[in-house]
Predict the structure.
Amino acid sequence: MKSARHDYLKLYAITDDGPDLIERVRLALEGGATCIQHRAKGASFEAAKADALAIRSLCREFGVPFIVNDSLELALAIGADGLHVGQSDTAACEARRALGPDAILGVSASTVAEALKAEKDGADYIGVGAVFPTSTKLDATCVTHTALRGICGAADIPAVAIGGIHAGNLLQLEHSGIAGVSVVSAIFGAPDVKAAARELKSFVDRADFTLPDETGMILDFDGTVLDSMRVWQGLASDFLRANGAEPKPDLDEQLANCTDLAAGAAYLQRDYGLKITPGETMKGLLDLLNTRYLACELKPGAEEFLREAGRRGCRMVIGTASDRKAVEAILARDGLLDLFLDIITTGETGLDKKDPAFYWTALERLGTRRSSTWLFDDIPACLDTARSCGLRTAGVPDMFFTEADFAGADRVLKRLDEWFKS
């Protein structure tokens, strides 16, 4: 029963293990539930099968999909309309092969990376949560509403929000991009199941879940916003000489291929045989960098661009290989820190800027669509990665690269403030 539309996700009710289950499912359907998922965590296979067959019959009577939670064996045994799996259950790709192309497959996801993998593996929808604290899964980590927006903006399949949702907070999910809400206790734990379902359905019907088409911007810092590349250029030479090593003629060329400080430190450690630990190399470079950093000025046109982007309501994050405290200090110095939703660093995330996961993290902090999110960077390899993720790209050539190196970018800017002039 593959649905061509996503209306079945509007009010997605998940059963509990309370008494009179079949009657309560009927009441939920009468109240307006658009999909029923049967969750029977502690039941034997035969008991779960008996309930599932009865619920399947009710769902067919009301013309709504019946989904089995977790158990591929049960879904196949009773001919369910679909299956929902978590990250630790049957792999989505395996479930899709077993179910065939016509069954509905849902997958739980709490990050952009998980959502996109589910989509690739054949999921029809994703369940994202917990979006509020929930009593049904005490160990669930809450997904922020901004991250929920980012997940919905990244995936091309619909998302249903789950976790702690009830009539009192459902409208807080407006403009998040979801197709609907999934609830357990808000329906099946209510004294009047039918009335609870009817009330929730009325909220869902009048809610506007549409994700705003806002512009997202991921801005590299060094060489893109800050005129600091000469600091970086001399940093490694000075550090090497301070540690008894003479820089080689190709030092700058080699470092240009390193997308963050950790990669540069590893190169120096490896190729120059430094007699200090990797941790000491990293700390020494950071200390030297931070002493020089605050003397750097923003690149021409950068402040004008940032203030105009803020005025127009663009959602911005810094995505950098630099140290957070140093970036914060410069942005605060110039009165720009409050324009940014976050500063994402390779050091804190443990992700290289040539790793797609770095940009998935940025989307979760931005809450914008992939197709309306831009990366501004002075390194072509980073733009290539972002473009492979479905982001738009703007090259800002600095001292190590020319405009010709940015041939694949959507736009090439000599100065950031050219952005709003065309």
User: Anything to note?
Assistant: The CA atoms of residues 161 and 181 lie 5 Å apart. The first helix runs from residue 21 to 31. DSSP finds 17 helices and 14 strands in the chain.
